[in-house]
């Protein structure tokens, strides 16, 4: 009997750890009144350099060595030059919608992002959750940006001061259109 219980406890513990570390999407609180999509260290965009999207036109991993805080999130940069650019004009480089998926925000939801799926629209960084979200958002880009801009303040108000959990993914509607 002891031979069965110990391995069962170990397996159960391992399964639980895998669930919480890799499967369950995080729950977090708004930070300093800002609704931002950050990891457990309060780092936004999973540590990618927000300035590099503009200067290099691609995602570049940042470093904690070059970091600063802005609107409740910690930003990492690939270089001191990018850090200084951000400090001089943070609103220019900070991602829209608190670094939540632009398409999800346009339909009133909060979803995580894949930092490699992005676009610069009218000088603003917009990140997306999946390639499908990117495609849906871009089917009517101008209208979806307007929708996201209109829905964002309500999402901030609804989640302010409360634990934030990602919404369930929207059902694909690409086949409907």
Oligomeric nature of the chains: single chain
Strand order of the largest sheet: 1-6
Query: Which class do the helix and strand fractions yield?
Result: alpha+beta
Task: Please report the total strand number as a whole number.
Answer: 6
List the helices and strands and how they pair.
Layout: H1 2-23, E1 27-29, H2 52-55, E2 63-70, E3 73-77, H3 80-88, H4 90-93, H5 102-106, E4 114-121, E5 124-128, H6 131-139, H7 141-159, E6 163-165
Antiparallel strand pairs: 1-6, 2-3, 4-5
Q: What does this entry look like structurally?
A:
This protein has 7 helices and 6 strands. By secondary structure, it is α+β, with helices and mostly antiparallel strands. Strand 4 and strand 5 form a beta hairpin. The termini are far apart.
Describe what is shown at a glance.
The protein has seven helices and six strands. By secondary structure, the protein is α+β, with helices and mostly antiparallel strands.
Looking at this protein, list some descriptive labels.
alpha+beta, two-stranded antiparallel ribbon, two-stranded antiparallel sheet, 7 helices, globular
């Amino acid at each position: 009997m002891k031979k069965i219980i110990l391995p069962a406890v170990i397996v159960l513990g391992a399964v639980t750890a895998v669930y919480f570390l890799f499967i369950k999407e995080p729950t977090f609180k708004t930070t300093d009144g800002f609704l931002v999509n950050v990891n457990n260290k309060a780092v936004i965009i999973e540590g990618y350099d927000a300035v590099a999207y503009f200067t290099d036109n691609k995602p570049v991993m940042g470093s904690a060595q070059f970091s600063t805080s802005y609107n409740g999130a910690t930003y990492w940069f690939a270089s001191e030059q990018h850090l200084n650019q951000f400090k001089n004009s943070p609103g220019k480089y900070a991602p829209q919608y608190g670094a939540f998926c632009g398409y999800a925000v346009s339909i009133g939801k909060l979803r995580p992002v894949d930092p490699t799926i992005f676009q610069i629209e009218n000088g603003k960084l917009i990140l997306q959750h999946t390639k499908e979200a990117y495609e849906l958002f871009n089917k009517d880009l101008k209208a979806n940006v307007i929708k996201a801009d209109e829905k964002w303040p309500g999402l901030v108000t609804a989640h302010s001061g409360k634990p934030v959990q990602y919404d369930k993914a929207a059902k694909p509607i690409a086949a409907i259109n």
